[in-house]
Amino acid sequence: xxxxxxxxxxxxxxxxxxxxxxxxxxxxxxxxxxxxxxxxxxxxxxxxxxxxxxxxxxxxxxxxxxxxxxxxxxxxxxxxxxxxxxxxxxxxxxxxxxxxxxxxxxxxxxxxxxxxxxxxxxxxxxxxxxxxxxxxxxxxxxxxxxxxxxxxxxxxxxxxxxxxxxxxxxxxxxxxxxxxxxxxxxxxxxxxxxxxxxxxxxxxxxxxxxxxxxxxxxxxxxxxxxxxxxxxxxxxxxxxxxxxxxxxxxxxxxxxxxx
Length: 259
Known about the structure:
It is a single chain. Helix content is 42%, strand content 21%. It is of the alpha+beta class. It has one domain: Toxin ADP-ribosyltransferase, Chain A, domain 1, CATH 3.90.176.10. The strands form three sheets. The chain has a five-stranded mixed sheet, with no helix packed on it. A three-stranded antiparallel sheet has the order 5-8-7. The longest helix has 20 residues. It is globular.
């Protein structure tokens, strides 16, 4: 019966883990890598060719998505794009199925320490170009804010009214839509974003919609209500906040860059 007990405990552990996965506290996501590259865009751009070469070797998933995205953008031969070819390619690569999830999981953890970013985050090129692309698109649109609606099934967000929070990723949300309801636990977020921009012109591959919100935008939790198994939350843009700035160049000047 000890074996049975062990089995039961193992099963219980699995069940608890599954349940734990369904409740996610929204906070300032301190571990996420949130660099805005303020004041070092030219230096980063100069460092990019060597960095990209190195990452294409170190990160097969990035290499595959980058090659695919490059081909797709070249085929389009778009002349009215506000983005450079590298920026446009980054947006398309980011949306690639498979890479999207892997990249965001890495973004969520890479801010843990300078070493984590330097040694284990092989998406530095994509992070910089995507951040740069969103800033360029936002400037092109005149910096407008917009309401988005994001229904997420299987996860219930938890936050207090008045909290300031961030997402730990480049969050893609539809302007409106998503599933009408969830079979179990779910969240309905109404997010008023001033940094999120619509990338639908470049890609329709994003599973959750075309507006991409960067990890450094902060939000005030305006309202939280519970409807059955659904957490309904209203978030309003409250500016930006970054724990990191020009992180790669700090490593670079110490002489331990990949380039």
